[in-house]
Each structure stands twice: as C-alpha cells, then as structure tokens.
Amino acid sequence: MTVRLEDGLTIYNGIENREYNISEGKEGELKVSSIKESGKIGLKVASLSDPSYIPYEGSNLPACFVVRLEKSGKYKVTISCKNYKGTYSVEFSEL
Q: Which domain of life is it from (predicted)?
C-alpha cells in the first residue's frame, strides 16, 4: 500500500521487486537514494545467475550510495518497507 502526503513524502508498506540484466562481459551499478522521515526500509540485491553472490543487503540505508554489480547475469532487487515515510529511488545502469 502506498499513501501520498501533502508534504511531498509518501508512506510505503510492502515489498517491491525489480529485475535487471547485465550483458556478458559487462558490469552494472545501482544508484540508491532515500529520504527517510520515519519507519523502516530495507534493500537486498542478489544475483539470480549465482545465488551465492549478494552484493548488498541491509536496512537503515544511507541517504545516497552506489552498489557495484561486478558479474554479468540477472539480478533481483528487493525493496521492503514497513510504515516507511519518505522517498526512495533505485537507478540501474550497465557499465
């Protein structure tokens, strides 16, 4: 469930999954930014091609950071929110 507030922030509850593919011989990166007023947000980045490769997993995200994806293949990005009031964005690019 998502609720937009008059102050420009949003309240998020639930899980959002995204998938990205990195071409053979390439790398990728995720630029993550968030503005947290309250609640919890977590992020997990895992390779679907190599389940043992998890480039990032955590909560209490910094305001802005980059996750390097050093292996080609398919990745699953899971964003989990519980009463999270704020904003977030995840931008993927292949390098």
A: Bacteria
How many Cα atoms within 13 Å fall on the side-chain side of residue 39? 21
Residues 40/56, Cβ–Cβ less than 8 Å = no
- Please write the tens of the pLDDT for every residue from 11-51: 889 999 999 999 999 999 999 999 888 999 999 999 998 98
Residue of 56, 30, 59, 55 whose CA lies nearest to 42:
59
Fold of the domain spanning 2-94:
Jelly Rolls (2.60.120)
pLDDT 10s digits, 60-76: 888 999 999 999 999 99
Are 77 and 48 within 8 A, CB to CB?
no
User: For residues 54 and 46, is the Cβ–Cβ distance under 8 A?
Assistant: yes
CB atoms within 10 A of CB 95: 10
